[in-house]
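thread from #wetlab-drylab

HS: before we spend reagent money on co-crystallization trials with 2-acetamido-2-deoxy-beta-D-glucopyranose, can we at least see a predicted complex? here's what I'd submit
DV: go for it
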Amino acid sequence: MKLQATLAVLGLLLVGSWAQQPLLPNVTFPTCDSLEAQAAAQLSLDFINAQHTHGYKYTLNQIEDIKIITRADGTETYLMELEFLETKCHVLDPRPLALCPVRPKVETAVEADCDVALSKTAGVLSVTAFKCKTETETPDLDIPCLGCSVLIPFNDTEAAQLIKSSLDVFNKNNTLNSVFALLEVGRLSSQIVSGGAKISAEYAIIETNCTIDDDGVCVPLKHTVARHGFCFSEGLATSVNCQIFLPLEQIVDPAASAPAPPAPPPVLLHAHTAGPGFTPAIHALKHHKLTALHDPSASGLLSAESAESLEAVVPVVPVVPAVPVVPAVPVVDEVVVEVPAAPIVKREVAAEGEVAAEGEAPPAEEKAAVVQPAEVLVAAAVPLLPRCPGKVLHF
Ligand SMILES: *[C@@H]1O[C@H](CO)[C@@H](O)[C@H](O)[C@H]1NC(C)=O
Ligand SMILES: *[C@@H]1O[C@H](CO)[C@@H](O)[C@H](O)[C@H]1NC(C)=O
Ligand SMILES: *[C@@H]1O[C@H](CO)[C@@H](O)[C@H](O)[C@H]1NC(C)=O
Ligand SMILES: *[C@@H]1O[C@H](CO)[C@@H](O)[C@H](O)[C@H]1NC(C)=O
């Protein structure tokens, strides 16, 4: 009875505070595995991959969080936390992402945690800004690991030799009648095998203006007309395995009748993992990184770490009943901490993080409002899936 009385009082307080702030934006929290969250995550992934012009394509591993802020004018801002994993497809590889295997942990996986802001205007969702942190997931070295491989730096001299000699083998022995040059190093690793360490290299190549009979200066062709490829070689470079991709200009939709073939990504690669173009800012010493910050409109949406603290949680749906419904099952105090099944709706106290709150603490009655109404408490007796994070797609 005491709880019900509290809820009734809360209800009155809520109605009071609500009426005073009619124009503040609403915040909704869909579940991380909802169709809405998945569609926004897919859009974010495609956008981030399109910005990524070196290294490997990334794929989604998990939706960690999502919230949607709705303003009075109807525009919606999605704020998402996503975890991506590096695949084995180089960014130039035309294979669709669904066919790109994910780099397993034993090969030292690379993961990226990205905060993404999207906006939805007139029903169209688009990415406004993103911020990513890329890291390696090293294999568990506690397990003695014959066969495990670890990454080695892009400027390793032994690996550079492996690349040079394996590319020579490819150039002397390919049927394409062209000489290819190194475009960029994708990944270098060292594997512990019975005879010691075995180095392997993955690298991208680009067609030059030389045929295999020319010797002299060979200059890479323009990206739009050159054939590109991706090679793997290991050990003593006696063999090399290169896949050759068509020039970007020739990648057209096989369904010839389709009027607009999917535009090839505006990839403008340059070898920056080795040689004079070496730019450590764009990659780490041993792996490629996603763009760390992309915010062309200086939205500031991703820099506000304090945004959370500026929101007061006010359940809007279901509305706290003014006359409490007598629950069918006696409500015990412990149930109060259960995660509610219904999506919570939050109300912003200040525009999300753009303005510092000047120490304005939310009024006490709003803090107390996290207590859920009676219907939800009853529903909490059945096992509930947490709203977030969503399911792990790979590992
Ligand atoms: C917030 O949500 C409530 C309840 O759904 C609605 O009445 C109100 O108009 C919304 N406010 C805005 C700014 O969208
Ligand atoms: C590779 O680069 C790192 C960092 O730039 C540098 O400290 C190291 O000496 C370089 N190694 C070689 C072999 O060039
Ligand atoms: C060309 O390939 C063949 C068979 O794969 C191999 O035996 C030969 O050594 C290669 N030639 C060169 C120059 O590497
Ligand atoms: C390739 O282009 C460079 C620079 O334009 C030129 O010096 C070189 O002779 C060309 N090579 C061939 C085989 O045409």
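DV: The helical segments are 2-20, 35-51, 157-173, 364-368, 374-379.
HS: ok that's useful, forwarding to the group
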